[in-house]
TrEMBL record, chains A, B:
This is Dipeptidase. Gene3D superfamilies: Metal-dependent hydrolases (3.20.20.140). PANTHER family: DIPEPTIDASE, MICROSOMAL DIPEPTIDASE. PROSITE patterns: RENAL_DIPEPTIDASE_2 (PS51365). Pfam families: Peptidase_M19.
Length: 344, 344
């Protein structure tokens, strides 16, 4: 069930220069967790997006993850004009030329690996190029952003990071606890990403990141993907200008190559899915039924990406910086991380 | 626990011309189900083998199969000088030049797909290029060689065959029932193999195949891999000459391009594993403990492949035919099947 758009007017960027810049840029979304079908993919194409880190597993174990990946392959086989399963940044660059959507499969958890580090390479072989270490709760790998105690990176977590480094799977810290995040940056020989979070100075929230974590990640060659999810921008009342000013300040503080976007779009789901995200199988659903938050009027889905380009121009960022933030920074990070590292 | 070899003398082929032919040929074994490690792979190299269909799952479901494939990837990562994971016939041809062993992952059952046809493509993506439809007992796909009743190919079986055709996974009928085998040949739009069986006219046994099945397979462009497993050659008393005469008669009856070898080597296992093969999880192990059969003195493992070349020369086959039987026929079949088929 896609949300109804409030106005078709919103789809158009406000200026000709923004439209030209948006069309020229290779746009990569650092994270979406939509309920994918042809219509949902078409929204990305309408928004000018060429590459996306699409979540293929959150609470799933190995067998359920296989099923999810099987669904992706079937979707690709049935929609070759629209969808290509990507393994490299060049696959995304090619998708831009073909007017297709290049999907990098991603995990928002390490549950798909079970307790078996060898499954890192197995899922990497299936096209899983990005994995978040934990999702909201403590797991075998480390502590999470909503857990009162953060164990730090575990011994298994160190093995997982070493395997991810070796095979070329990008580590994502978005829902990870701060202590585990710092441990991960220390343990990893490859750059790390926070694909979809904002700084706590923008909105104080367990899902956002203190300066210490953001600086550790970006100083080690990693990136922060600024996130549009209502919770981490302070709700639907937050303006496009405020969001873009946050991006501009991050560019100023951390450099133009360290910042990208990770919208966290959750298109085409009903409320049952937000309950699954919140509770998985680890706790009962509880009294209060989980519901999706309301998105700000200026960003309700991938079709609104042109508005971000417009907003970034308006807060004074130059075109090169904006092209970096819209996607080229992600592409460069993927070029660096995806070939893997020799692990002695 | 590798069996002790009776004599190092046995390793050498008996004639210079056999040795030259063996060295020149690209040798492919249609099936081995050994307990793989570096030493076991070295046996293949010693025997002059460049490519092998190595069984990665028999009774395993999806999750356990992932673990088995993870083990293969680790073995390959640790032994790059010796082992390469192959996806094409050209990978095997290259391995011959590199003096390495190219492994095609194979299933001896369809249990790894569970009840989900989408997993065909998922496991194909992991390098599983060959799958037998059933292993000894009736399953979701069809009837098996030891089952008193053969259901024929099921509706799920038709979907599986269609998916295997589409993605380019070779169908194997070795342990499949005769009725299901004939149904499979009818249903498949790509050639099919019997990777490791002999004709019932050589040894009457449920694991061997009547003329009707062999002819259906080979007339549809498929192949029969002649098998060395003691059970299907009539035990250890059978001579190399008798085996090679069987091959020569098959070449005579079916043509020189329809015949290959599938040794069914089972190296480095203890008796517990033969119990697992026989009983899986579908029946208790029973009173009599399963034990491995004794192999004939002239063929106890992959190192004895040169003796086959010698034997095939001695029964009067020409060099081109022998090169075909030793591996080139498999390579041509792989070239045909592995790219997949367009399914309307």
């Amino acid at each position: 069930m896609a949300e109804n758009r409030t106005s078709t007017l919103l789809k158009a960027p406000a200026s000709d220069s923004a439209a030209a810049l948006h069309t020229a840029a290779t746009i990569v979304d650092g994270l979406q967790i939509s309920n994918w079908d042809r219509a949902t993919l078409e929204e990305l194409r309408a928004g000018g997006i060429s590459g996306v880190n699409a979540t293929a597993a959150v609470w799933e174990g190995p067998a359920d993850t296989l099923k999810a990946i099987g669904d992706w392959y079937q979707l690709a086989a049935k929609n070759p004009d629209l969808l290509t399963m990507a393994r490299t940044a060049d696959d995304i660059r090619r998708a831009k030329l073909d007017n297709r959507i290049a999907v990098l499969l991603g995990f928002q958890n390490t549950s798909s690996f079970g307790d078996d580090y060898k499954l890192v390479e197995v899922f990497h072989e299936l096209g899983v190029k990005i994995a978040q270490l934990t999702y909201n709760i403590q797991n075998l790998v480390g502590g999470a952003c909503y857990e009162p105690e953060d164990s730090g990176l575990t011994r298994f977590g160190r093995t997982i990071i070493s395997e991810m480094n070796r095979v070329g799977m990008l580590i994502d810290l978005s829902h990870v606890g701060n202590r585990t995040s710092l441990d991960a940056v220390e343990a990893s020989v490859a750059p790390i990403a926070i694909t979809h979070s904002n700084p706590t100075w923008f909105v104080e929230n367990p899902r956002n990141k203190p300066d210490e974590v953001i600086r550790a990640v970006t100083e080690a060659g990693g990136m922060l993907g600024c996130c549009l999810y209502p919770l981490v921008i302070g709700g639907k009342k937050t303006t496009l200008e405020q969001f873009c000013q946050m991006v501009a300040r991050l560019v100023d503080e951390l450099g133009p190559t360290r910042i990208g976007l990770g919208s966290d779009c959750t298109r085409n789901w009903d409320d049952k899915f937000v309950g699954w995200l919140r509770n998985g199988r680890w706790q009962p659903e509880g009294e209060t039924k989980a519901t999706w938050p309301e998105w700000p009027e200026w960003f309700v889905g991938p079709e609104d990406f042109p508005r971000l380009t417009d907003g970034l121009l308006k807060v004074g960022l130059d075109e090169t910086t904006i092209r970096g933030v819209l996607g080229e920074n992600w592409l460069n990070l993927f070029d660096d991380v995806f070939p893997g590292r020799k692990i002695s």
